[in-house]
Amino acid sequence: MKSKRIKISDNSVRRLSKYIRKLKELESSEVEAISSMELGDMLGLTSSQIRQDLSAFGDFGLPGYGYGVPSLRRGLEDVLGVNSKLTAILVGVGNIGKALIENFPFSKCGVQLLGAFDIDPGIVGERVGEIMVQNRIALDEQLTREAPDITILCVTRDAANDTANYLVERGVTAIWNFTNTEILSPYSPVLVENVHFSDSLQTLCYYINEKNKKRPN
Amino acid sequence: MKSKRIKISDNSVRRLSKYIRKLKELESSEVEAISSMELGDMLGLTSSQIRQDLSAFGDFGLPGYGYGVPSLRRGLEDVLGVNSKLTAILVGVGNIGKALIENFPFSKCGVQLLGAFDIDPGIVGERVGEIMVQNRIALDEQLTREAPDITILCVTRDAANDTANYLVERGVTAIWNFTNTEILSPYSPVLVENVHFSDSLQTLCYYINEKNKKRPN
Question: Any chain A CB within 8 A of the CB of B38?
């Protein structure tokens, strides 16, 4: 299935993983086809939103049948490039770094974790999950030998900007940023995907407060 | 400043924290006023998007002047309820749980962390940051004594659903979910805010693949 080359909004891209997750669930329950209305109900989206998103990504869906669950899932995974086998390294093996190495299903996302690096001699040489933590010299060697597609930045907030600049100077072009702080300028050509825990918590707080306002006193 | 009681989209709510973060940065650079155009440029949004979002949340902005940076920041914080002082507990003190307790600025988000709980005797009684990890009996007591506004769920993926159900039975009404798995039904009245690392990584992969497609071979 060929994906159309039209301008796709960031929100649509972000909904893709949501669709894929739900489709996998449906597949494991052996659901074969689904309408945009049903999918919308499950995800809290309107059916027109779903149809608009999916038509932007390719020619999925058959009139009167809906979407074939396994084929739609595979099609959307192709759009996301889940099978494109990108490489990653992780920099900063503190609690978050360890949690990702030990628990995050990189391979399911089509990403291969090549290595993890830290400057703390207390952690260098230690084994975390299946990865041996290496030092800064090894990081330089890694970047010279094979620049990873993705660098996962898990250093402390204080070290975030200096480390990001150091990495970019050595050829890093995409950063998955767990430092809870803004790194690099928005004009930088480097792709930065921020995991801002505080945005997520503040969104939850907003909904709690809205709910509390409606509650009779 | 009174906020209007109109229907606000989830995307607008999620952009609120983004605005507040940028406004704080501007305040620390002593910028006093900003136009929707300038703010849009900084955040990668259109000025009309900004005006639409901000007008949904309140009467901010003066014609010919733009938005006063400190007053807009305070106004948006009020909308988010940053000053409403919600309480939280954390359940499951593994790597992610530790990372949150040690590094996450709860108080800056207006949230007070009351306690952290785990069933592993190896961690119960240990001090993490300023918190002493307590056992399940203490968790039951906490929930009976004072149901927290927010429960931060950091248990393993396998334990996620059982723990969520257990918590909800004991009166938990809002969960900040770090288990990387879906918990509870979408029809549950419990508020669930998911931190899905994989959605974020897959979004980054999408942009990397798009960039690679454009690259001359």
Answer: no
Candidates B207, B206, B199; CA nearest to A17 is B199
Instruction: From B103, B107, B128, select the one nearest B116 (Cα to Cα).
Output: B128
Cα angle value A60/B45/A157 (rounded, 5°): 100
Q: Locate tokens 């902005």: which residue? A: B61
Confidence of residue A217 (pLDDT cuts 50, 70, 90): low
Residue-level pLDDT at B7: 62
A183, two tokens: 């790194």
CA-based nearest distance A75→chain B, Å: 13
A186 pLDDT band, cuts 50/70/90, is low
Q: Which of B146, B137, B156 is nearest to B97 (CA)?
A: B156
Nearest to A176 among B98, B102, B201 (CB): B201
**Cα separation, A25 vs A17, whole angstroms:** 12
B104 has pLDDT over 80: yes
CB contact under 8 A, B14 and A186: no
Contact B86 A208 (CB under 8 A): yes
Q: To which residue do tokens 């014609």 refer?
A: B63
Residue B5, pLDDT > 70, answer: no
ipTM: 0.84
**8 A C-beta contact, residue B89 and residue B132:** no
The structure's pTM equals 0.81
The answer for B86, left when phi > 0, alpha when psi is -120 to 50, beta otherwise, is beta
Residue A184 near residue A164 (C-beta atoms within 8 A): yes
Distance CA A109, CA B137 (A): 38
Is residue A189 within 8 A of residue B208, CB to CB? The reply is no
Q: d(Cα A125, Cα B64) in Å, to the nearest integer?
A: 60
Residues of B in contact with A20 (CB under 8 A): 202
pLDDT, tens digit (0-9, with 9 covering 90-100), for A119-133: 999 999 999 999 999
